[in-house]
């Protein structure tokens, strides 16, 4: 990881991250919403919960079925009663018929009428003083009954319940459908009517053994009352559930939508280039997915801010570092046009040559440092024998003769397998930079000691020089870009200040570490220690 960047850490696990990707964008397609994506999240939450409430409201359809079953049960009961009444009338003498009818009407709650074969009324319990069948006038009912009837009518329309015929009194027996049916054939006939107050009226007729017909009429207000009580209970449950559901929906929307809006506003401000003044809320008290998202966005904004800072600092450092050789180069070129002395001209040309080499080295290091992070993220790691790599590197340097007489000693145990997983070219650059750094700070007759060993499943490579060493308060500074602790005797510009920064970036990309410390066997000298995880021997 390049200096000047920060680590982006979130609560998301690798498995969650991979499942979201879906392998090349599949997860994005799975999260795409068509028409519903145009609707506010709050409205969608409310719509889902209201839809569930509408399913609960479907219980009113059940009430219609419940009422139909009660009516059918009452019709069957009325059929049995009218049959028994006909048998009881046939079993008594005419003189005892009226007291029997009065008692039966009181017991069954029905109005009983007898018709002769011609269809005329011969007996009526109302005329006998039993007024147990009285239709209520809806115009005289209180407002709550009127409201209940209106609700009955609305629900009947919604559930498409069949509408019974309106009950009206008839004087002649032939005008009653039940009586007419019994006169045609000896059966028990029943009809369900609708009273003016929308309560059911049930009529039933049965034949008499002596000729004629007996008919009972009952106003089953208890059916309507029972259905209304159940409907009221269901309405209360639906009302309470609706209130609770709406409140919970609003609470859910508040806990989801409001944080999302805050995060969206912060993200927009970051996009508009106001990252300096934007504080993305981290929502530390939330342990759900929104909290994870908030912390991921916050970390991302911090990483973006650090990357911008690093880029700006890098650009400023590049400008500063390039100005020095350019100024020197310009002065030397201008002097060439005025100086006639061949010796001075040769000296100025040497300065020009050195400045060109410094610029070339600086530009190369800057180019590599700027591309290093991206290249390492795409690198394919493979087993690398670090000991053999260092030996080959030292052989190449010896062949080029660039050590100025400095001796380099490499110590290793041939029995140890010093193999790591990594990119060979990059790891070679690490040790080349460390050797270059040691050579540049060592005296011409100095010794550079390189040792490679394995300890605790780690490869440990130490590079020691005989230079002035690194002060303790500067041991982190030397790994920053364009930072170099130069000896007083060295001419300015011999180092770009990027070698150690590049080395640390490569080592950390290989899950390793690099530090500098003082040598323990002498007062002066620096000791660079590189640690890398060894490859699995399997």
Q: What is the average per-residue confidence, as pLDDT, rounded to a whole number?
A: 79
What is the tally of beta strands?
Answer: 12
Which sheet architecture does the biggest sheet show?
Answer: 5 strands, antiparallel
Spatial strand sequence of the major β-sheet: 2-1-5-4-3
In CATH, the topology of the domain at 56-233 is named Beta-Lactamase
Q: Briefly note the structural class of the backbone.
A: alpha+beta
| Helix share, percent | 40-55%
What is the CA-CA span between the terminal residues? 28 Å
Q: What are the segments in which pLDDT stays under 50 over at least 5 consecutive residues?
A: 1-33, 488-493
Instruction: Please give the CATH class of the domain at 56-233.
Output: Alpha Beta
Strand content: 5-15%
Order of helices and strands: HHHHHEEHHEEEHHHEHEEHEEHEE
User: Which CATH architecture of the domain at 56-233?
Assistant: 2-Layer Sandwich
CATH superfamily caption of the domain at 56-233: PAS domain
């Amino acid at each position: 990881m390049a200096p000047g960047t920060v680590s982006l850490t979130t609560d998301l696990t690798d498995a969650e991250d991979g499942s979201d990707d879906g392998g090349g964008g599949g997860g994005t397609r799975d999260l795409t919403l068509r028409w519903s994506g145009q609707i506010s999240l709050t409205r969608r939450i409310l719509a889902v919960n209201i839809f569930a409430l509408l399913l609960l409201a479907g219980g009113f359809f059940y009430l219609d079925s419940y009422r139909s079953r009660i009516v059918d049960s009452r019709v069957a009961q009325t059929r049995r009663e009218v049959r028994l009444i006909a048998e009881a009338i046939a079993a008594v003498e005419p003189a005892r018929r009226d007291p029997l009818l009065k008692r039966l009407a009181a017991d069954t709650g029905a109005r009983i009428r007898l018709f002769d074969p011609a269809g005329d009324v011969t007996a009526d319990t109302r005329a006998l003083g039993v007024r147990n069948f009285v239709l209520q006038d809806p115009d005289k009912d209180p407002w709550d009954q009127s409201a209940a009837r209106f609700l009955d009518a609305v629900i009947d329309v919604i559930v498409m319940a069949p509408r019974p015929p309106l009950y009206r009194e008839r004087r002649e027996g032939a005008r009653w459908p039940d009586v007419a049916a019994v006169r045609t054939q000896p059966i028990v006939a029943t009809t369900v009517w609708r009273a003016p107050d929308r309560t059911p009226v049930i009529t039933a007729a049965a034949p008499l053994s002596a000729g004629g017909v007996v008919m009972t009429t009952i106003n089953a207000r208890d059916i309507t009352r029972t259905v209304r009580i159940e409907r009221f209970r269901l309405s209360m449950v639906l009302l309470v559930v609706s209130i609770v559901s709406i409140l919970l929906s609003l609470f859910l929307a508040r806990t989801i939508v409001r944080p999302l809006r805050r995060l969206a506003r912060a993200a927009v401000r970051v996009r508009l280039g106001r990252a300096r003044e934007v504080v993305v809320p981290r929502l530390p008290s939330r342990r759900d997915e929104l909290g994870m998202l908030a912390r991921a966005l916050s970390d991302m904004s911090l990483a973006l801010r650090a990357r911008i800072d690093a880029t700006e600092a890098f650009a400023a450092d590049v400008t500063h570092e390039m100005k020095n050789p350019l100024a020197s180069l310009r002065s030397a070129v201008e002097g060439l046009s005025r100086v006639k002395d061949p010796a001075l001209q040769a000296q100025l040309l040497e300065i020009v040559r050195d400045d060109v080499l410094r610029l070339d080295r600086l530009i190369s290091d800057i180019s590599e440092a700027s591309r290093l992070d991206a290249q390492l993220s795409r690198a394919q790691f493979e087993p690398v024998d670090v000991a053999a790599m260092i030996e080959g590197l030292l052989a190449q340097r010896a062949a080029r003769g660039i050590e100025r007489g400095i001796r380099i000693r490499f110590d290793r145990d041939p029995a140890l397998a010093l193999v790591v997983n990594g990119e060979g070219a990059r790891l070679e650059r690490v040790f080349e930079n460390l050797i270059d750094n040691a050579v540049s700070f060592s005296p011409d007759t100095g010794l550079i000691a390189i040792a490679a060993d394995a300890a605790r499943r780690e490869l440990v490579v130490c590079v020691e020089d005989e230079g002035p060493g690194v002060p303790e308060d500067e041991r982190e500074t030397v790994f920053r870009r364009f930072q170099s602790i130069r000896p007083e005797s060295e001419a300015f510009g011999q180092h770009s200040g990027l070698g150690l920064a590049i080395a640390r970036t490569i080592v950390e990309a290989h899950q390793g570490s690099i530090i500098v410390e003082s040598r323990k066997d002498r007062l002066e000298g620096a000791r660079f220690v590189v640690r890398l995880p060894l490859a699995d021997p399997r």
